[in-house]
Amino acid sequence: MTNQLNFTIAGKGKPILFLHGFCESLEVWKYLEPYISTKEQFIAIDLPGFGKSPLPKFHSDHEFSLVDVADIIADFIKNELEEPPLVIGHSLGGYITLALAEQHPQLISGFALYQSTSLADSEEKKEIRDKAVKFVQERGMEMLMPTFIPSLFAQENKERLKTDILEIIKTAQETSKETYIAYSIAMKNRNDYSNVLRNFSNTKAIIAGEHDPIIPIATSDHLASISTNIIYHKLKNTGHMGMIESPEASSKIILNLTK
To answer: Name one Pfam family in it (predicted).
Structure first.
């Protein structure tokens, strides 16, 4: 499966692997690449089903899970990288990062939850996912994304980044219904990975958006307190899309994690 993953590599040095969020692609990391690749090795992939990577095919009795995706990423690391990378997981990518850290801790040198959480979905969040799936089934991605994507950005950044927001909307609209539904169910059914965040022995960090509407700053504050060796950073004036809203600050934080 790994040879079907679309990916890009730039620069030399310690490998840093970037996993994007829901209905995104590796292109979302292009804002960080100029900063990262001049110092360390920048690697970004299209998660299975997104961008140019196909959604895995399983037997009909197999329920697609984020652990399946983590296993695919593990194979990618073993086959394509020369040493364990620092993994940066944004939102959905953070959930997969935690599954990877639980299942294959020897394959990564550390990780950062980049505007993500180790907590499982609340009942309210599960209901929201179910409603979104129904909306997409009935009306399609084209109708959902023009309102959903702008809501991810801090209000003060929307006008400044309107061209970038339109680009993210276009990428999200190109996500297939099959992928949207499969990942929505997988996220809804994912485990609570707080024990991984608490017990992982190598570098671990949380990078939060001060005005994140998806992962409230209070949630990140709580998660940062569950272990004394979690590195914690807050991005000022930033919503849920820090790689676009605060690329320089994000890059500086991430590069410091390799030291």
So the answer is: Abhydrolase_1
Reported pTM: 0.96
Distance in angstroms (rounded) separating the CA atoms of residues 23 and 50: 7
CATH assignment of the domain containing 250: 3.40.50.1820
Q: Where are the alpha helices (DSSP H) in 140-176?
A: 141-148, 162-173
Distance (Å, whole) CA 173 – CA 144: 8
Query: Taking the C-alpha atoms of 151, 152, 154 and 156 in order, what is their torsion angle to the nearest 10 degrees?
Result: -50
Q: How many domains does the chain have?
A: 1
Above 60 in pLDDT, residue 227? yes
Give the separation between CA 192 and CA 171, rounded to whole angstroms: 29
CB–CB of 17/87 below 8 Å?
Answer: yes
> In 3-state terms, what secondary structure has residue 156?
helix
